[in-house]
Design a protein that fits this description.
Layout: E1 2-5, H1 9-13, E2 21-22, H2 32-36, E3 42-46, H3 50-61, E4 66-71, H4 72-79
Length: about 80
Amino acid sequence: MTIVDVRTRSEFSGGNVGRSINIPLNEIQERIEEIKKLQQPIILCCASGGRSEQAVHLFKSLGINCENGGSWLDVNYKFGSTL
């Protein structure tokens, strides 16, 4: 599993899930090949779940196994201790 945080770099630097990867939503299109190489499933997160839901739709259209984790705080609570 890989956790991808789609918030901006400044949001990510203010707090994030340990060992998560920051790929801001506006950079996803140009980083598709990098994303395809990540260990799947990919759990996407952001501040509230809206941006990560947008990313999920794009990832799924590319055949990438992923799900929306919602807020990075929720993902940290759910998966943080297992990373």
